[in-house]
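Lab meeting prep.
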Amino acid sequence: GCGRGKGEGGGVADATPASWKRMSDLATAYNNRGQIKYLRVDFEEAVEDYTAAIGVDPDVAVPYYNRGQIHYRLGRFDAAIADLTKALELQPDFPDARINMQQAQNDKQKRDQGINTSNWKAEGS
């Protein structure tokens, strides 16, 4: 998130505002299970659940946002930017996604310029 250090970005989202497209029960279940895995720091398994939620309901922003958050935390900036961009395409009034995408773009630029990259994992993006 904006103004926070590496690894302190906003968490994943579990609730969808009433004005947004609702997830199906199955997609919600995958998203919620992904959130539990995220909180347990099982990031790769959480990514699998968010990907499954997207497979069930590809037109809902929240799983893209959540998966993007994990990609960001793991230093996978290109993947994070892609997911956060998709979340914003689906739900333009998603301020956390916009803020976090800007942060991912800034951090990617810094890493690509060789600025303070020692605390980021290599990812090949």
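Slide two material, second protein:
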Amino acid sequence: INMAMEYTSIRMEAMSTQPIGPALRHSLGVSISGCLMGITVAYSSGALDDMGDDIYLTKPTNIQYMLFSSLAAGSAFIAGLIFGRFVTLIGKKHALMISSIFYFLGYLLMAYSKEYILLFIGRGVTGLGLSITCVALSPYISEISPTKHRGKFASIMQIQVQFGILVINSLAVLDLSFRWTACITSAIAVINLFFVAIAPETPRWLMSKAKVREAEDVLDLLMEQDPDLVHDEIEVLQRSCRLEIPRDEHGSIPFLSSQNLKPLAIMCVIMIIQQLTAVNAVLSDSIRIFKDLGISQPRVFTVGMSAAFLVFTFGSAALTDKAGRKPLLLVFAVLISFSLALFALAGFLNQGMHIALLTLALGSYVFSFAMAWGSIPWVLSGEMFSLENQGRALSIVSGVNWIFNFLTVFTWQPLNKQLTPRWVWLMYASLMLLGAVFVGCCLPETRGLTLHQVTDLFAHDSPRYVTVVHRISTAEDSTGILSLASRRGQRTSINNQPHTF
């Protein structure tokens, strides 16, 4: 155990000296996929409001309205069940390139469609891009980022998502038609394709495919050609690929083992809770929702909401690695529940108090979601699974996310008509309280752990010590720890006593 504690200290020292510049540049480049994801989520709100004025289209019926709002999520759910293994086979870089092509084709089709059936097809194709983005983008960023800053880096995805939402809502305020916004989004997809094409594949994926030379080249780039850091990281990646346990007779972790099923179940519930915030129902139909709430300038209000989402998401990026994933999710689940209850209460008040309380509720809601539930579920999804089963697991997790996204968006208007809006808000507020209880009882903390250590949390009943005892019980691994320490000349302490390897 002491050897393992020493090993962890050495690894954290190595990670603290890892340069962040190259990883940050490539994370920002590929995360334009997140911007496209945000545009796609919020595109339907302004587009549906504009379609009634189009020279080729009639005003959408209620069925067409609900279908167009929810079709991208439905398509993403179906595709997510397929693309998970696909991403594992071809790598995250190439998967993100394919997602850019889907976005480009889908928006191009919507820009030139003259019938609703073509609009629906285009919307469904963009859902394919959504699916791949969810499965590939967060793990890509997690795998190239320094452990010490992984939470901040992974939050870049959600920052880009919120930026995309702000862009599409701002274009709606400028009265650009849904066709022009589709053309602009197609151009953004081309830009994203370029940045993904020049980005490297993750060294973790390359090492899993025994492409050691290519992994070294990528680490040379990420570590700015520091030979000690590159050598250390190659050893850790090789050891990580060998030591993920338990394994079957073929040397692989069984997908149905507890090491995979535990994080899979936890992440599926976390994604369900994320959708029970009702955020995608609000984003995809924000203009009509604000009209129903009595807001006189719903488009301007929507832009203000989007800008607040973006600003507060930066706060989430700063806190994720300091406060931890679990505390933030727990606290802000309770605050989201409180905000949703305020929306319900506003329906009982007179006009003056109604607007004041709505403003307070919306500010609290946006702050609470952006600070935790927007980004942290995606941060966790990139951390929780072993590499060989990551694709299948993330396809299930993203599929669960998108099916509940589809259900919340598709049922929003019918529920409001059957139950009235105040009771719908109260229903979601109650469900978020249950979500807070789940986070407090079942979610482990992953802050400060390497990706291999996170997957080992689910391998044993006593993950803090048993996993590391397993590692040092083999001569090969203990020798690796000693050589890593001796090369770095690391002086540390064990039980408060100075010790040097």
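Talking points for slide two:
The radius of gyration is 24 Å.
Strands lie at 491-494, 497-500.
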